[in-house]
Design a protein that fits this description.
Strand order of the largest sheet: 2-3-1-6
GO molecular function: RNA binding
Number of helices: 10
Radius of gyration: 61 Å
Keywords: Repeat, RNA-binding
Number of strands: 10
CATH class of the domain at 125-276: Alpha Beta
Domain RRM: 124-196, 198-279
CATH architecture of the domain at 125-276: 2-Layer Sandwich
Order of helices and strands: HHHEHEEHEEEEHEEHEHHH
Shape: elongated
Largest sheet: 4 strands, antiparallel
Helix content: 40-55%
Structural class: alpha+beta
Protein name: NOPS and/or RRM 1 domain containing protein
Biased composition (Basic and acidic residues): 14-25, 73-86
Length: 488
């Protein structure tokens, strides 16, 4: 029996032993990887995708907000693909509008089409069926290379068929003629022309639509390989045509646009009707070798050969019923064709009348627009005349004010000049008077000197008499004269 100490030591060792599922995050483990440890720590905190991803901690709008980045990846991818498809559709629409604007003018005397056959057209494709499971592309290439140059060899080993495209239509016919029915690894090859998925059928064409116009009109949707208007045994157009594009997307684009909108080729308001072309093989037909000979229905149907039924027999009775049903179908089809022809003529008449009314209304609208334009021009001219008249009045008023200001300034200058002249005259008069006083004073001074000398002589004669003052008269004269000089 183990002691408690041993048990405690074993328990301590178990506690120290790292768990196996966390070896990648413990440094003491042998599989320690710092980068992986950091990523696991980041995941545990909710910072990255994984089983431990927690969007609550990776929410840019807060823990309680809504995280718009947690939408399913497929939903975001679909949304991005939708936006990209919308952008591509807008680009295609812009290119289509530019091409239509370039060809919307008169289409008279179009140049003839190049009749030289191009290489690797869409109609030069063959279907190869009834292949064995062990047939490879190399085996087919060895057989096909004897008939001409080929490309785009596609082999489906699950369903045992293949497609191949030759350079010219003659090479396709040669390969079909020589290889059809040959044995390849135990099975007979079945070769026929493959339907061209890039072909469309154009209906409701007018009598003036040619191959050149059909090619010229539908080249806005993509590269056109061949465009033909179907004719009857007398060479008259049947109102239908076939257009073969280089790519299937161009054909689908033409079908979609012509279905959504009305596409006109001529001046007539008869829109073309575009639909996928259903290939019909009228060259080879249905050979006997393609029939299921082991089928009981085949054996039952071939139990009797061609014959003429006897009158009033069981076969003749039901044969007559079939003929009556087919005659009824033909009569209804003919009646419907006549009714459709009458409706077309009626629609053409209504179209011409509506066009006349539309053109008349357009002329009225144009005349009305011209009258409105003329009235608008008249109002603009009247407004311009009023503005010119107001401007002329403002100019005249401004000139009058300037003249008045100039006259007032001239009057002020005249008054100022007159005042200055008066001041100058007064100054000259005062100057002259000052000169006269100076002269008088000088003369008086001279007289005074002479008088003083005479007085001195007289004083010597009289002596110093009492009560006589010599300078009294002189002093009084100076006192009287000094204020007069200061006055000026």
């Amino acid at each position: 029996m183990a002691s408690p100490a041993a048990n405690s030591s074993a328990t301590a060792q178990d506690d120290q032993k790292p768990p196996e599922d966390h070896k990648d995050i413990i440094p003491n483990s042998q599989n320690f990887d710092p980068q992986r440890r950091q990523m696991n720590r980041f995941r545990r905190r909710g910072g990255g995708p994984g089983p431990s991803f927690n969007p609550r901690f990776n929410n840019p709008r807060g823990r309680g907000g809504r995280n718009f980045n947690n939408r399913p990846w497929q939903e975001r991818k679909d949304e991005a693909d939708g936006e990209q498809n919308d952008f591509k559709e807008l680009r295609i629409q812009d290119k289509l509008i530019e091409k239509l604007a370039a060809i919307s003018g008169p289409a008279i005397d179009l140049p003839p089409l190049d009749t030289v056959e191009k290489k690797f057209l869409g109609r030069n494709r063959l279907y190869i069926g009834n292949l064995s499971a062990d047939v490879t592309e190399q085996d087919l290439a060895e057989r096909l290379s004897k008939c001409g140059e080929f490309a785009e060899l596609f082999l489906n080993k699950e369903k045992n068929f293949a497609f191949v495209k030759f350079d010219y239509y003659a090479s396709c016919e040669k390969a079909k003629r020589e290889l059809d029915g040959q044995v390849l690894k135990g099975k007979n090859l079945k070769i026929r022309f493959a339907p061209n998925n890039a072909s469309i059928k154009v209906k409701n064409l007018s009598d003036f639509v040619s191959n050149e116009l059909l090619n010229y009109a539908f080249q806005v949707f993509g590269e056109v390989e061949r465009a033909n208007v179907l004719v009857d045994e007398r060479g008259k157009p049947t109102g239908e045509g076939i257009v073969e594009f280089a790519r299937k997307g161009c054909a689908l684009h033409a079908i979609r646009k012509c279905s959504e909108r009305c596409f006109f080729l001529t001046e007539s308001l008869r829109p073309v009707v575009v639909e996928p072309y259903e290939y019909v093989n009228d060259t080879d037909g249905f050979p006997e070798k393609y029939l299921p000979r082991r089928n009981p229905d085949y054996l039952k149907a071939r139990s009797k050969g061609p014959r003429l039924a006897e009158l009033n027999s069981f076969e003749h009775e039901y044969g007559v019923r079939w003929k009556q049903l087919l005659d009824l179908y033909a009569q209804k089809e003919e009646a419907l064709r006549k009714e459709l022809h009458v409706e077309k003529e009626k629609l053409d008449a209504q179209m011409e009348y509506a066009r006349y009314e539309h053109e008349t209304e357009m002329l009225r609208e144009e005349l009305r627009a011209r009258e409105l334009d003329r009235e608008r021009q008249k109002q603009e001219w009247e407004m311009k005349e009023r503005k010119v008249e107001e401007q002329r009045r403002r100019n005249e008023e401004q000139i009058r004010r300037q003249e008045e200001t100039l006259q007032a300034r001239m009057l002020h200058q005249d008054e100022e000049m007159r005042r200055r002249q008066q001041e100058n005259n007064l100054f000259m008069q005062a100057h002259q008077l000052h000169n006269i006083l100076d002269e008088q004073e000088q003369a008086f001074q001279d007289n005074k000197d002479g008088f003083d000398e005479a007085n001195e002589d007289d004083g010597n004669m009289r002596g110093n008499a009492p009560g006589f003052r010599r300078d009294r008269w002189i002093t009084d004269r100076r006192d009287d004269f000094a204020p007069k000089r200061r006055r000026f």
